[in-house]
Amino acid sequence: MFKELVLNDTLDAIKKAVQNKELGELTEEILNSGDIKLVSEKPKNADFGDFAVNVASMARYARIAPPVIANNIVKYLPTDNYTTSVVAGFINFKLSDKELAQVIEEILDKKENFGKPENIKKEKINLEYVSANPTGPFHIGHGRWAAMGSSLANLLKFYGHDVYQEFYINDAGSQIQKLGRSLNIRIKQELGENIDFPEDEEERKNYYAGEYLIPVAKKFLEENKPTDDIQVLSDYAKEYMERVQRELLENFRVHFDKFYSELDLHKSGKVEHYFNELKNKGELYEQDGAIWFKTTKYGDDQDRVLKKADGANTYLTADIAYHMDKLDRGFDRLINIWGADHHGYVARVKASIEALGGNPDKLEILLGQLVNLIINGEEVRMGKRRKMVTLDELIDEVGVDATRFWMSMRSIDTTLDFDIELAKRSTDENPVFYVQYAHARACSILRNAIKEKINAETGETSPAPMSEEELNDTFKNFNSEAMLKAVPTAKSLILKLEEFKSMIEYSAKTRAVYTICRYVQDLASEFHSFYNSNRVICEDKDLMKSRLCLIYAVKTVLKNALDILGVSAPEKM
RNA sequence: GUGCCUGUAGCCCAGUUGGAUAGAGCGUAAGUUUCCGAAACUUGAGGUCAUGGGUUCGAUUCCCAUCAGGCACACCA
After folding, report:
1. Interval A127-163: pLDDT, tens
2. Whole-model pTM?
3. I want to staple A405 with a disulfide (CB 3.0 to 4.6 A). Which of A63, A215, A432, A440 is the partner?
4. Distance, CA of A364 to C1' of B66, in Å
5. CA–C1' distance A225–B4 (Å)?
6. Distance (Å) from CA A421 to C1' B68?
7. Residue A258 — φ and ψ, nearest 5°?
8. What is the pLDDT of residues A203-218, one digit of tens each?
9. In strand B, which positions have an atom below 7 A from any protein CB?
């Protein structure tokens, strides 16, 4: 990576300068202590160069003015790949055309593997996300976790990790009975009985009054005789909802390796097993008829109940077993994506891992802020009794591509405003179309290179600039020498292409999927800009070939990035 | 009341761990098509980085306080 190249060369040069005592009081000890942190970044002003390293921070150790430091370092920098200049405390690097041409060569060589790091510490990662109750359709909030989670999985895989995607189904517990009771009412309504959910707010909380159970009731009656057996109804409704959820996830390009059933977890005996283990370790105590877990010992702000006075387990009891089971399965790292409304839950899960002798640092919980829906410029709150907008309605309205992109384009730390009207628009207000358009445009140029041209006025045809075979040969037999021709007018575009590598690294390490969305917009912008001032298909055949390679590189990188986001890269629009 | 997240241009947001004149996009103003997709491009205008302190040669960035918005504080899941 250019960033690393520049930084490492600078560090080497600093060492040499220190050895020759040209950096004042700066010693090798200070250098090795790690107190001095250098970063290579983009200069504010592009005229300065392509990369810059700020050495002013060394001034306090060296006790020399920053410009002198910079000049004394520059002396020891190699000169083959770039030219350098010193401005104040900055060393600016301008990459040579040859270096830039090699970027295109590398992309054409590696294609869909361009940007994959070579030697990373590969981790076996369990990524758990969405994990909704099977008691109703997904709402738009689930859509954010689905989009971000699957994109993160794609990203971490691309980066080189082993990623196992998991969905935890909360199919045990009282809410399933609640679902069955609610279905019972809908069935009776279908049969013409005059019955409805309770009016009283408190009593109504024991039911799911949403209309989504009406089709389930109809279907049930088609297949079964009416029954008051709540267990039968619960199971039916649960399976139905699970099926609906899975279909939607597939449609949304979200693929789980495993749907992990809480019910199975109970049946396996693991819940009791870990409960007993905590008990044996002396972490539990009894009070008011319930059994409590001393999570405060591990930093939680209050102790938690594991077994209620009525003898039933709490949700946490099963969740402890679930997380321990994940660790038992040999994952190096567990990543969970949770809504911010669950943040109070983090401490107790980490506490339980620690209490059971696991390493709580292996569990990484990404807390995501919630989603607001904007309809006609107004915020629509996902209120209890107001009509809820479901994920499938949203996808029907704006499409999979736009939904995925919009759900991923903001940092997980900020509340996402999802503006339906904007996401639907196919104009420059909508970044999804902007990026896809760039890809389609690049494809179009490649098509035109091998297509005969028809004059719109005269109707005369002129031969294609080159044959398909010749174009393929151009991509196959490229060399950076030949690509040099395209470089002078494409520098910032090439630098942006090269940035893909460091962007991926940053994004994977910080789990920040939104940086890919930003990158892809930047790259599209650089490409459109290049397109407007340079003709690709032109008289000078060497130049044309050189630029076609560049366009092919742009298309490749755009496609790679969009693949990670789960957004399609259309060849035509 | 306690904990977590947020506050940067009219709007929506970046700001890679403390450094050059604070950056994109949308919107807005003015331009750009006999030629590869104008769903595009170019150039402007627009900022007391919520407020007040502190640390530092230097703070949008780190610390403290205050204000504003969101979320959570169950023997629910």
Report:
1. 999 999 999 999 888 999 999 999 999 999 999 999 9
2. 0.94
3. A432
4. 33
5. 50
6. 28
7. -150, 135
8. 888 899 889 999 999 9
9. 2-6, 12-27, 35-42, 57-58, 69-77
Residue A378 confidence (pLDDT): 67
CA of A489 to C1' of B40 (A): 18
Q: Which residue is nearest to nucleotide B57 (CA to C1')?
A: A60
Nucleotide showing the shortest C1' distance to residue A56 CA: B19
Phi, psi of A48 (to 5 degrees): -65, -35
| Closest-approach nucleotide to residue A310, Cα vs C1' | B75
Distance CA A431 to C1' B7 in A: 25
Cβ-based neighbours of A301, under 8 Å, separated by 6 or more: A347
CA distance A151 to A317: 30
Domain boundaries, chain A: 2-95, 431-565
Shared fold status for A2-95 and A431-565 = no
Q: Which nucleotide is nearest to A430 (CA to C1')?
A: B26
pLDDT digits 0-9 by tens, A322-344: 999 999 999 999 999 999 999 98
ipTM summary value: 0.95
Nucleotide B17 C1' to residue A184 CA (A): 56
For chain A, what percentages of helix, strand and coil (3-state, to nearest 5) are there? 55, 15, 30
DSSP secondary structure code for residue A408 in this structure: H
Residue whose tokens read 């938690």: A304
- Using C1' positions and the CA of A88, the closest nucleotide is B20
Between CA A301 and C1' B2 the distance (Å) reads 10
**Whole-number Å distance between alpha carbons of A262 and A357:** 23
Q: At what angle do helices A315-328 and A346-355 cross, to 10 degrees?
A: 60
Taking alpha carbons only, the member of A524, A499, A555, A482 closest to residue A97 is A482
What whole-number distance in Å separates Cα of residue A133 and Cα of residue A343? 18
Nucleotide nearest to A311 (CA to C1'): B75
- Nearest 5°: the CA angle A267, A270, A273 is 125
| Among A328, A288, A340, A337, residue whose Cα is nearest residue A310 | A288
Fold of A2-95: Gyrase A; domain 2 (3.30.1360)
Provide the pairing of β-strand A124-128 with A40-41: unpaired
- Residue A60, CA: closest nucleotide via C1'? B57
| Residue of least CA–C1' distance to B70 | A415
Instruction: Place A427 in a pLDDT band, splitting at 50, 70 and 90.
Output: low
- Checking each nucleotide's C1' against the CA of A319, the nearest proves to be B77
Give, in Å, how far the C1' of B66 lies from the CA of A60. Answer: 35
Contacting residues for A439 by C-beta, under 8 A, at least 6 apart: A524, A555, A558, A559, A562, A569, A570, A571
For domain A431-565, the CATH class is mainly alpha
